[in-house]
Amino acid sequence: MNFLAHAWLARGGSDDFLYGNLIADGVKGSDLSAWPSDVAAGIRHHRRVDAFVDSHPAVHKALRRAPSRGRRYAGIALDLVWDHFVAKELGLDSTQSQLVLRSYHVLGRHSAPARLSRMVPALIAQDWLHRYADYNFTCRAIDGIGQRLSGPNRLAELLPWLRHDYPRLEQDFRQLWPDVTQALGVPPRLPPFQP
């Protein structure tokens, strides 16, 4: 899961809890004592979600289908693909989400950890979270992340597989998402949009 899924799963908490969930990938180590308690709780929540997702049979099934050369990087790509399906599930291709706007507001109020400091302003300015509903945009985001990694762009090499395997990845998501939301005790769908 990436930013959007983590935001959805943390939406019932305080803004600090949401912030912790959004920036957790940029925080190293288990000592979270430097963070306010709600932020630290959000970071821990994010890590529990990641552990659950990483151990889920649907994710293992998808990873086994990935090309062997790129399998080591496929989990990164799948995190963004899951966000694409969350965006579709939440109807972000046709409506502006209050959750996304809240996430941008929370991220904009705080400085991001160093590992995310260059990405977060672009994420907000270019409205990535709404745009994940567009699979072509999601694939471009995967390619962009691959460009920031050292060595050849192994994520870009996965794009043909991700496009070809789209129907099966969607089936995997349909198994994964209800299990994640049930494990965390949150409803899997958004209520109707309220302007």
From TrEMBL:
GO molecular function, one term: [acyl-carrier-protein] phosphodiesterase activity
TM region positions: none
GO BP: fatty acid biosynthetic process
Entry keywords, A to Z: Fatty acid biosynthesis, Fatty acid metabolism, Hydrolase, Lipid biosynthesis, Lipid metabolism
One Pfam entry name: ACP_PD
InterPro entries, per database record: ACP_PD
Keyword Chaperone: no
The protein's name in its UniProt record: DUF479 domain-containing protein
